[in-house]
From TrEMBL, chain A:
Keyword tags: ATP-binding, Hydrolase, Nucleotide-binding, Transport
GO molecular function: ATP binding; ATP hydrolysis activity; transmembrane transporter activity
GO cellular component: ATP-binding cassette (ABC) transporter complex
ABC transporter domain sequence ranges: 6-236
EC id: 3.6.3.31
UniProt xrefs under Pfam families: ABC_tran, TOBE_2
Gene Ontology BP terms: quaternary ammonium group transport
Group of enzyme by EC: hydrolase
The keyword GTP-binding belongs to this UniProt entry's keyword annotation: no
Name of the protein in question: Spermidine/putrescine import ATP-binding protein PotA
From TrEMBL, chain B:
Stored SUPFAM superfamilies: Periplasmic binding protein-like II
Gene Ontology cellular component annotations, sorted alphabetically: periplasmic space
Example of a GO biological process term: polyamine transport
Signal peptide, first to last residue: 1-26
Keyword RNA-binding: no
Keywords linked to the UniProt accession: Periplasm, Signal, Transport
Any coiled-coil regions, as ranges: none
Pfam families assigned: SBP_bac_8
Single GO term (MF): polyamine binding
Name of the protein: Putrescine-binding periplasmic protein
Subcellular location(s) per record: Periplasm
Major location category of this protein: periplasm
Automatic annotation (TrEMBL), chain C:
Gene name tied to this protein: potB_1
Top-level taxon of origin: Bacteria
Protein family membership: Belongs to the binding-protein-dependent transport system permease family. CysTW subfamily.
GO terms under biological process: transmembrane transport
Membrane-spanning ranges: 7-26, 69-90, 102-124, 152-171, 207-229, 249-273
Keyword field contains Transmembrane: yes
Name this protein carries in UniProt: Spermidine/putrescine transport system permease protein PotB
Keyword Cytoplasm appears in the UniProt entry: no
Coiled-coil positions: none
Organism: Roseovarius halotolerans
Subcellular location(s) per record: Cell membrane
Membrane topology: Multi-pass membrane protein
Amino acid sequence: MTIPDLECTDLTKRFGDTSAVENVSFEVPPGSFFSILGPSGCGKTTIMRMIAGFLAPTSGDIRIKGRSVLDAPPNKRPVNMVFQHLALFPMMNIADNIGYGLRRQGVSKPEITRKVGEVLERIGLPDIGERKVDELSGGQKQRVAIARCMVLEPDVLLLDEPLGALDLKLREHMKIELKALQSAFDTTFVYITHDQSEALVMSDNIAVMNAGRFEQIGSARDLYYRPETPFVASFVGDSNRWRGRVVSVSGDNLRLRSESGLDLCGNSHGRPVSDGDEAEIFVRPEAIRLGRGEADIAHFDNRLSGRVTSLLFNGAASRILLRPDSGGEEIEVALPQSGEFAHLSRGDTVHVGWSSDQGNCFATETG
Amino acid sequence: MKTTSNQVTLATAIAGLLALSQPAAAETLRLLTWGGYAPENVVAKFEEETGHSVEVTLSNNEEMIAKLRATGGGGFDLAQPSQDRIAGPQAEFGIYKPIDLSKIDASQFIPSMLEATKANTTVDGNVYGVPHVWGTSGLVLNTAEAGMVKDYTDLCAPEVAGKVSYRLRRPTLIGFAFSMGMDPFAAYGDEAAYTEIMEKVEAKLIECKPNVKAYWSGGDELMNLMRSGEAVAAMAWDTGGWKLNEDNADVTFVAPTSGALGWIDTFVLPAKGSADDAAYDWINFVMRPEVSAMITEAAGNFTASKGADEFASDELKAKYQASFPPEAVDNIKWYPPVPAGLEVIEGGVLDRVKAAN
Amino acid sequence: MQAAHRLGFVLLLTPLLLWLSLLILIPHVDMFLVSLRERVGVGEYATSLANYRSFIDEPLYLWTFARTAVMSVMATALTLLIGFPVAYYIAKMARGRVRSALFLLCLVPFWVSELVRTFGWMILLRETGLFSSLLQWAGLVDGPVEMLYNDVAIMVGLVYTSMLFMVVPLVTTLDSLDDSVIEAGYDLGGSGPSILREIVIPHAMPGIVSGSIVVFMLSLGNYLTPIMLGGKDSLWFTELIYSQFIVRFNWELGAAFGFMLLILSSVIVWGTLRLTGQTLEKTMG
């Protein structure tokens, strides 16, 4: 079994009485892309800063390539960090920026020049060595910031929401490029973000974090289709959510009566849910099937009819909102891409249905 | 009975007339003077009596002349430089205007002092100054520790090494010259002779420099040095010594054997003054014996007002008499007018003394 | 429309032009003209370079001139040396109230006049003063020690008086340095000194230069501090100018001195800018 590049065990950080990170454990295998996804203030930056060495954990251990780095100051750790605003040195040109770490290591001048040239080549920006930082575009700066770290060949590269400052188009482009760079350098990336699409697209593994704890660690697919906590279910991807009381349970299948009066079938996927519990059911918009008539959805155990209240056109990701005839909240439903429902308009009556498997049910913690 | 009634009527009429004429004649008097020469109680009394208002600006000889020179004699209506600093600057810069002696009540002045000042401040037949406050500079000593100092040159004696203070200004040059047996006043008209005297004084002051604690430049600085005991012998004004005497009986003013240097501060009218009537009113007002006594109380120096001595406090008189036995009074060297241009010679000497190690 | 625009422009510019010409240009031209006059007799003057000649011919003046410049440069360097850590602490380490409190501490001395501030130092340093008494009380010295009236006292006074003018521009520039840039330096393997040398100081250069220029000018033009703390050997160039103008009534030589001081400070400021590769626009903008 290979030693993980990065391993955190029971990592805890408290600031006074408030705990920012609570008992977090994870490991990142070599060469993989690991993301920590969570809303702002969830503690993900604190983890990052502890790994980089700018914060000392209250308890727990951080091991890189099997060796604890708790006693090493940031400038002695085999990790490098790409900062949120990149933190390029504005007083130096690009070559000096990239060569900074090498100079600090005491590498000889010709060697530095060679390595800097090489890494510039790899990020596809040769001949920009003499330029100043503010002469580069956002995407170029991004790549230089990564090159500045990669030239040092760190064991782990930390990235602190580096795409946050870019505009949407460039961000989409950089997601793909980052992933490509990661496989080109074959280095372990630890990436933190609050943007689920960044995490889902790039990562091999994702940890979803909330209020200082990891909710779930898994592949993008796992998180999306098999969320283990209500938080993950609602945070990753879009969901329709109903809250209510469980009226019957049989195996994993259960029935729930929502606060708005709907009867819904759901599945607990092995989680403990019992009769009479307060619970929530999450259903993804694309899991809901649209039908012109009741017959189209007859085979689903959840069936509803309603009136279209809004059409949200967004190309491939177009949705409709509909209000069920039986009352309750609006339901978001993905439009199939076949074009079958392209002429749907506001006020039309439609029928929707989904299987109980798609109704992810969680007992809400009582408190 | 009739007479009395008439007198009362007359007095009332005059009073009424005065009251009527007051608003028309009321002016603002911008007075450029020394600290203590225009105490608040005197100003208040003057304003009440005449209706004029007074704005006081405190200064010293050099700054008064520099200020008036900068404006060509404007900005002030009455100034009080020393009598030796009037003829020279007037000839050079024309910053004063002649005094109309008919508007001044000569009977309030000590005649000898008035005549001497008039003579010293006459340029082209015009009189530019009348005397106000006079005093001397000499030695301020802590007699317990520096009793051996009798003259300026004794400040260079080893007994008081490191505990001496004087100003780097012209009175020091003049005082040392006298104390070294020369007569700088006699050489005022002869630049070569004066330069020669000054060169000797320069040599003496450079030789004396290690003895000096600090060259004082303001009265407060000297007071601090003497009060703290950091200096035990200084060259300074008589009032400074008397003031220190109140705190420490050992410290007092001593007239040096070669003679204290006598100065008279005067009244002059700046060339562009615009409230001459108020200025004459002020002069005649403050020269009244009882008002002069109030100024003596504030400034510590006696005035040229005839009969004001009677109002002065016995304490001050006693100090004066202790510092000035009759022969010392006769020995006071009164500054003659400084010819224009002498300052340049003295300036070079002072610069070199300051720079010497 | 166009005319109204122009009128607005002229009106906007008038205060600046008035200020420049009335308060800066005209006095300097006048001072220059005065410095070219030579007194040949009572109230008679001729145009000549005699005043500048007497400045160059008199070693005393040149010596004082050089001494003033060197001491001012030293005071500036010392102020920078002390002010930089203070500014760094205020800008980068102190937070919230501590930060305001420290800033206030730098400012407090300026609530009283320079005269009072200087008197404060005299009280501390003089022979019968606080420091001397403390040393005697602690048994470190036998007799009273005079710490006033020497060049060190002048230096202390100058540094104290100028501190704020160094700290404020430094805090401003250091504030603009993103913390993450410093962290990036550490992260990439930089040590404290190397980050200071390669990142912090280059970034703070405009602040360092503008602060130094202001402090240098203040020290060079200071009058009270050198005179009062320096005592009998103070020898400061402004003192020469003052005594020429006020005591000697020799405005002509005083004006020449004033002009020499203007030239000296301009040359040194220009030289510093050249040496550090800064421009006035960058520093003051």
